[in-house]
Amino acid sequence: GENVEQHPSTLSVQEGDSAVIKCTYSDSASNYFPWYKQELGKRPQLIIDIRSNVGEKKDQRIAVTLNKTAKHFSLHITETQPEDSAVYFCAASQGISGGYQKVTFGIGTKLQVIP
Amino acid sequence: EAQVTQNPRYLITVTGKKLTVTCSQNMNHEYMSWYRQDPGLGLRQIYYSMNVEVTDKGDVPEGYKVSRKEKRNFPLILESPSPNQTSLYFCASSPHPLSYGYTFGSGTRLTVV
Fold first, then answer.
1. CB contact under 8 A, A103 and B45
2. Which of B40, B43, B105 sits opposite A105 (nearest CB)?
3. Is A51 exposed, middle or buried (0-12, 13-18, 19+ CB in 10 A)?
4. Would you write out chain B's pLDDT as a tens digit for each of its 113 residues?
């Protein structure tokens, strides 16, 4: 089955600096890669996603890049702010036998933005 | 408002006492899933359902049951809870997980003593 590795597990940055979180996946059949943000005590929420036919996607201060050959994708947050402090999860989705789809998550990265 | 509703938010129970965590979505999503979240282990899938009467095991299904008799509802059943099932549980739904992300419920914090 699919295995998604995420690193680093914790990341501290100064306010205004950039943060990068990286994920690798094992199954070349994976073709959809969402990122979720989970603030303390709250539910995960989708913040950005990328499909396998796209190499990069931006939404204001966040961007995601995908390298299908190397099987890795990354989340980039620029001009970080204290409200960016949260746990971030990457995920990979793939179709499996019988027409099912499976979503596998990374273990999460706790981002702390220091004012 | 489009949402996934889980109940209860908090539950303390004793070993062996059957319980059900309810999940309902109002977005007409076909795909629903249950995850448990534990420190250092991220989100692990328990069961998922592609549509009414279509369910399958995720990565950690032992000790859990699910049913999908209606499109909007996907309850999680613990027939005989044990302390190792103490965790934070999330229900989630999606129109199609190969193209769209999940909408998560607010979570259920379960403690089994």
1. yes
2. B43
3. middle
4. 889 999 999 999 999 999 999 999 999 999 999 999 999 899 999 999 988 999 999 999 999 999 999 999 999 999 999 999 999 999 999 998 777 889 999 999 999 99
